[in-house]
Design a protein that fits this description.
- The longest helix is centred in the middle third of the chain and has 27 residues.
- An eight-stranded parallel beta sheet has the order 6-5-7-12-11-8-9-10, sandwiched between helices. The chain has a two-stranded antiparallel ribbon with strand order 1-2. A two-stranded antiparallel sheet has the order 3-4.
- It is of the alpha/beta class.
- It has 19 helices and twelve strands.
- The N terminus and C terminus are likely disordered.
- It is elongated.
- β5, α9 and β6 form a beta-alpha-beta unit.
- Helices cover about 35% and strands about 10% of the residues.
Length: about 675
């Protein structure tokens, strides 16, 4: 039979090496006798080098036979005398030389089995080293070293090979040879241990702690540190209260000089309590109305569209959260009538808006570009225009002094016969015409549009009307929607000079630039026009943070512009929401506008906030365009004011350049 051999790269379990005790016979002798006649078959070719290597100098046909012969020889060896030391590892005698001509690798050479791998570290201590390192007798270490040396002695046989054999030693012999050394203990310590009662180490005696007193124990000694610390805390608290009172007094000093009453008002920023704002006692604000309706939120387009129902919902929620709604009288929202809409739009346009949505189609949102249609579009557009008209009628009739209409969709882009720019009906233009038609004492209306986009629809409808002055502050330039609103567009026919455009050719303008436009252009013309009613197309996309505007007008800027407008027409002012597509920025600016309508005083701009030089230069060009129709712009006093504003921009530029040089 052929016995397959394991190759050199096979995984051998070295951890379970075979251990043979010399002197044992029986099964191993029978196994060696049975295997001595087996002929081993080599799977490797003759003179192959694949079996050569360390530990395998011969071929596979001779390795097993030699190993078995060595095992049988060790098994037949008589046991060593009892005095011999225990052996460290089994060793095999050298194999006889391989007979020549057998064909195995290492033919005719003598082979020795390599030593087995020992998996522990052993230190061979020489007698000299052991004697040198042996500590004094009587210590525990000496007993351990001596015992270890007795089991690690090795002797060599005549051939130079190490031999060892177990030396049975009884426990009594070890006990008689080695003594256990105990540490020395003082007699006094032993006596103390005898006197103390024995306790179980697992059971600890209970710990008795003193209970805490329920009485507050403050030190009576005023010189103690605790008393000093309490005194300092009281002083710090008193100082903080005094400093807060001084700051509040400084902030409101000018207001008290003007005989104003102060009251706490809700915050404009996330519900946090804001500093007190003043309500002027000398001005009779009267009743301020607020108009809104959830119906206008039904017009809902694609989720990514800027003009979305959340604009209305978030603005109303902000006014309610800031406590402004409770100070207003609600005005019922309604749909605009055909008579009101026909003052600005054609009959064909009304029919187009009513029938633009295809109700037979499965699409719930229809339309492309800046206009989308739903089944609720016509109703929402009528409600937006009608709510603006309702707020305007309430103020024009005298039942309300001022009013704010939170409406959507917006309207200032809607032309006479065209819906565009998210707009279907021109809400503020319809409200202005409706007020002129319904109230005989209303003869002149100022319609100011501070939306960042030009109200091309309002200009289209009112371009020839001298009863309504349209003023627009907007960005202007190629590529910015709707690319209309040049300063040269002043009106035609009877409306010549009643269309005032303030085009900003650069972005990033802020409060100082907008208020400069009021100082140098809008205020002089508006006072000369002397309106009976003021309507604000209140688009808040010029606010800082709006995703489309690119301007930096703050809540303070909107409040200050509102104060300028409510000072006209005896305070009769109506604001209607237009644009504004950053939800937080729009809601905050709208709340500031309504707060100014309610009479909350707004601090003026800091003297460091000045308009840009390019802004004043643009306003100078507008003055040149309109000074023929409005002579107030050509007066010496106004020219002096303009030069002063221009000089202030120069000073600001010098300071800025000086600061850059210093840095």
């Amino acid at each position: 039979r052929a016995v397959p051999m394991r190759r050199e790269d096979s995984d051998d379990d070295e951890g379970s090496a075979l251990t043979v005790t010399p002197g044992t016979t029986g099964d191993l002798d029978g196994l060696a006798a049975a295997l001595s006649g087996i002929e081993l078959a080599s799977k490797a070719p003759e003179n192959s080098s694949s079996y050569q290597g360390v530990g395998n100098p011969g071929g596979p046909d001779t390795i097993l036979a030699r190993a078995l012969a060595g095992i049988a020889e060790d098994a037949s060896t008589p046991p060593p005398p009892a005095s011999a030391q225990p052996r460290r590892s089994p060793r095999l005698k050298p194999f006889p030389a391989t007979p020549a001509g057998t064909g195995g690798v290492g033919d005719g050479e003598e082979f020795r089995k390599p030593k087995l791998v020992v998996r522990y570290k052993r230190e061979n201590v020489t007698p000299a080293a052991s004697a040198a390192n042996t500590p004094e007798k009587g210590t525990p270490k000496e007993s351990f070293e001596t015992a270890r040396e007795s089991f690690s002695e090795v002797k060599e046989d005549e051939d130079g090979q190490e031999e060892s054999s177990p030396a049975p030693v009884s426990v009594a012999t070890l006990a008689s040879r080695y003594a256990v050394v105990e540490p020395e203990v003082d007699e006094e310590e032993k006596e103390k241990d005898r006197q103390q009662p024995a306790t179980s180490p697992a059971i600890k005696p209970p710990v008795h702690r003193k209970p805490r007193s329920k009485v507050k124990t403050k030190p009576r000694d005023p010189s103690s540190f605790a008393a000093f610390r309490e005194m300092r805390r009281e002083q710090v608290k008193a100082t903080a209260k005094a400093s807060d009172a001084e700051e509040e007094a400084d902030a409101l000093a000018s207001m008290f000089e003007k005989k104003v009453s102060v009251e706490d008002t809700p915050s404009r920023r996330g519900g946090r309590k804001a500093p007190a704002r003043a309500v002027r006692e000398g001005d009779d604000v009267g009743v301020v109305g607020l108009c809104y309706s959830d119906v206008m939120e039904l017009h809902e387009g694609p989720s990514h569209h800027f003009e979305r129902p959340a604009r209305h919902a978030v603005t109303v929620a902000r006014m309610r959260k800031d406590g402004l709604e409770e100070k207003c009288r609600l005005i019922a929202a309604r749909e605009a009538t055909d008579e009101e809409l026909l003052t600005c739009h054609s009959r064909e346009h009304l029919e187009y808006v009513a029938n633009a949505f295809d109700r037979t189609s499965d699409e719930k949102v229809q339309g492309v570009g800046d206009i989308y249609w739903t089944e609720h579009t016509e109703r929402c557009a009528r409600t937006a225009a009608g709510s603006a008209c309702a707020a305007t009628h309430a103020v024009a009739s005298g039942t309300h002094h001022r009013a704010f209409a939170v409406v959507r969709p917006p309207g200032h882009h809607a032309e006479c016969a065209r819906a565009m720019g998210f707009c279907f009906y021109n809400n503020t233009a319809v409200a202005a015409r409706a007020a002129l038609a319904a109230h005989p004492h209303v003869n002149r209306v100022l319609l100011l549009d501070w939306d960042v986009h030009h109200g091309n629809g309002i200009q289209d409808v009112l371009y020839e009307d001298s009863r309504v002055m349209y003023v627009s502050l907007h960005r202007y330039g190629e590529g910015f929607y709707p690319e209309t609103g040049a300063m040269e567009e002043t009106g035609t026919g009877e409306g010549e000079g009643y269309n005032v455009n303030v085009p900003w050719t650069e972005k990033g303008l802020g409060d100082a630039d907008y208020l400069a436009a009021f100082d140098l252009v809008i205020d002089p013309i508006a006072k000369s026009f002397d309106p009976d009613l003021v309507i604000i197309a209140a688009g808040f996309d010029a606010a800082e943070g709006d995703p489309l505007g690119g301007m930096k007008v703050t809540d303070q800027g909107y409040a200050l512009m509102t104060e300028r407008l409510v000072s006209l027409a005896g305070g009769k002012c109506v604001a209607a929401l237009e644009g504004g597509y950053g939800l937080t920025a729009t809601a905050s600016a709208a709340a500031s506008t309504l707060g100014a309508m309610l009479g909350y005083a707004t601090p003026p701009l800091s003297s460091r906030r000045r308009p840009k030089r390019s802004t004043v230069e643009t306003l100078g060009k507008i003055i040149e365009v309109h000074k023929e129709r409005w002579p107030v712009l050509a007066s010496e006093e106004h020219q002096r004011r303009f030069r002063s504003a221009l000089e202030m921009t120069r000073v600001a530029g010098k300071e800025r350049n000086a600061g850059e040089l210093e840095n």
